[in-house]
User: Fold this.
Amino acid sequence: MVIAILGLIYHQLSNLDVHMFGAKILTYASSSSQIGYLVVMVLMMPLNWWLESLKWQKLISPHENISSKKALKTILAGVAAGIVTPARLGEYAGRLITSNPDKKGEVVAATFLGSVAQNLCNISIGILFSYYFLKNYFGATYLDSITFFVVIIIHIVFLLMIYYKLPKVVNIFNKFGKLRPYVNKIERINVYNQSLLNQVLLLSFCRYIIYFIQYFLVMKFLDQDLAFLLVFSNISMIYLIQTGIPLPAFISVFARGELAVLIWASLGLDALTALTATFILWTVNLIVPAFAGLWIIYKTDLSKFLKKKKE
Assistant:
């Protein structure tokens, strides 16, 4: 896996003009007024994963109590395993092998719910600010903007209803014979009450805000002085579309880069700036934690998990 990640970094760098890419980074890094943005952005990465570990403690709390340290290890192991799998499905494996082997079903259900909550934030905020993006990018006009926002709010309310009624949704899918083997893996989702669902959703929203601020700081680091509302709409649209890219993180970074180029072009940003921002965020938020997660997996006694699996 280490070789795969190192090869991934090399592959992504080869897709960029390394000299221009490096020169752009060094240009702004050498400016005392610009480097501060990058430093703050990097320092927000541990806060992001601390919030995710806190969310994991909440998610697993109906089944067992774990320490903050244990939760963080589980999260980082999931990042490492998820970075090389489609839609980051390996995250389930990473969390499973670092959790109680007697709680496999509970871990799967908790991971699923956490993912749903995070995607709910990505989708809801994305479609909420899609009005400004579509208006700016495509020149779309609406005869009645109030109607547009009403439709958007209805969509968001519908998504929230699904989130808070997940046990019922799971039971509906459980009636389909072909889906039952898969649905059974998350049937333990019915132990979550509304209070706990509120906390998980709030933590997911906080993580979204951190991702947004990080992106905003990177753009400031790259000396992009843009109107806040337009920046917010573009960033939220990027996260919305990325949510629907079912590719491994090590492949999707290039797709994300191309996506960023298309979206930021609406504000007149050049391709190199968009790709640089994407690569910085990808490296800080995924690659660095993934290496920490690899070390945790390496130090984990997998024999207990494998033995329990055989039983």
About this structure: The chain has a mean pLDDT of 80. The chain has one domain: 2-306. The two ends are 27 Å apart (CA to CA).
